Each structure stands twice: as C-alpha cells, then as structure tokens.
Amino acid sequence: ERKNPKMSLFSGSFVDGKIDWNPTEGMNTDYLISLPFDLLNFNSCSFECGYNEEQINELQQDKYVNSYITTREFEERMCYLSYFSCDHQDQIDDVLLKIYKDNYKGNLSTADSLVLEYMEENLAEFIDTTYNKDEFRWDNKAWISGIYLRYLNYVKQGLTKPLDLTSLGATTPVSRTDLLEKGFSEFETSKIINYIRTRDEVIRIRRDENKTRDLAAYSFSTNNLGWINVDVFFNDPACKESNFIVQTLTNDSFEAIYVSLVIPKRNISIFSIFNEGDTYSFTKKKEGYRLLPINEEAFVVAIAVKDDQSYFGMQEVKIPSTGTVSLNIEMRDKESIAEAIADLSKN
Q1: Domain count of the chain?
Q2: φ, ψ for residue 281 (rounded to 5)?
C-alpha cells in the first residue's frame, strides 16, 4: 500500500471512466529551476552602480535555497533593479530587495506584483510608457520607465517557484520506484523526474557558461589589452559605421562562446554585443552605437568551454564595414590560449 506523499502536485477525478488530472489549487505545472548559489551572479549588470557585499550575502542564506531567489528569472530581475543601487536613488534597491526577501516562500509573480505596485505608488512622476518610444534618452525618467515596462511584462508572465524536492520527501538521486513507493502517482512521478533532469541540464549548461567566462577573463588578464565598450568610438573621426558579423565554424555545439574584436594598435578588446545562432557582431544593427575603426588591423577571437575542455579560434582581419568573417573554433588547452592572446599585445 502506498504512503501519502507530503505534497500532492496534482489532483484528479474520474470522468467517464478516465482520470481527469488538474493542477493542485495554487500550483502550476511549470516550475522555475533552482540553481546553486555559486552559479548565480546577482551583480551581472552592475557596471556603474551595484549591490554591496552585504546585500549579496543576505540573498545567499540557506533559507532561500529552492526558492525563486535561486533562479535565473530572479537573477534577471536583479539585473534591471541594479539601477536603483546607484547613490542618487536613495536606497530604493533595499526596499525592492526586501519585497523579494519577505515573500520568498511564495510565487515569483506575487513579489513582482508588489514591486510594480511600489513603483506605481512611489515613482509615478518618473514613469512614462511612451518616453523611450523613438530612442532611449539615458536619463532617470528613461531608466525608470524602461524598468516599469519590463515589470509589466514580468507580472503578465505569472511565474511560480522552483519545485522543492525536499518538502516532497524526494531526495536525489531519485528513482521512479522510490517515488511510487512514497505515494506519488505515475503522472506526478514523471513530472518530478523530468524536473530533475531539466535542472541537471540547466546546471551543466550554466557551469559551461561560467567556465567560458572565467577562461576569457583569465586569458585576457595575461596581457595589456583592456576591455572597452564600442561607445568609445562615438566621437572618433577615424571611425565609421560598421555592421559586419562573425560566423563561428565548429563541429561542436556550445552553450556560450565569448567572441572579441582585438585591436592591438589601440591596445583594446571589444566583446560582441549581439549574437544570433552562430553569428556575432560588435555593433547594434538598428540603433545605438554602430561605429568602428574601419580598415584597422585587428583580430577576431573566440573562446569556449564544453565539458571541461577549452576551445579557441582566432582570425586576423582588417575591420570591414560590412560582410561576414568566418572563424574556425578548435580544441585548445588553456595555457596556449592565454599565450596566443598575450602575443596579440605585442603586435
């Protein structure tokens, strides 16, 4: 005889001799994926401002494990809310973070709604949903209006929370037989196992992404090349509009590839700011900064990691205004990648 599980994911009734399954009230069939804290970066968008160490440490408390605090979706929200960590925002970031921390046991959509409500009640003078219609204006009103629009979408998403396997009495590694013996139905068992498999794959992908980022940071730190944004070219008379793309050629598939444009003469490196499939570019296609030093000697560099194996590609170019640069990516050890990039600063 099966035991009663600690939580029922679905309820059902017999209809015409068949079981009609329905989500248990207040729950959704689609759960967010909870990640280990070491795979989350709550300061990923804090370029000029940023959350302080105390704020980050508070979010990494054990009580938040398996809550929406440990999801990619919350990480994305932290990116947008980082604007409120700037000094001129009068600690609004603390207020908004408190909303998420106070409601961590519930659904992400609940906290999203409360953040939206706070903005409507306290920041109404800065909210104009048509303010950025033609182009982004880069002032306080533009930033807050943009964040507000983003939160309107977040609330519409109606996201729930991760599936807490511990509260279900399901420990990992888990087997179908074990779950059935605990009292879960075949349907519930399939949902739990699929969730675990999806989570394992997301964690694997995120680890590869982080290793790729770390390898790129390590490789470029071995020389004097400084990373910059393309807006540095905005007032440079030697720069003209460019929309060339880089197409990576490889027999392997990667979750993340760091593609850079290295210009030794200027002692700088630029990360790609846009990618679609296996193509990358260093300027925006429709709006924003689109200038590069045309015809200057440069190198297109790509770095990737997959299953703890590093990959590398490098192609010398004269920066074109248009067209496609093909870049082969092959397996390469970490040390030789760093040496190859270090040699670029000697050109």
Answers
A1: 2
A2: -145, 165
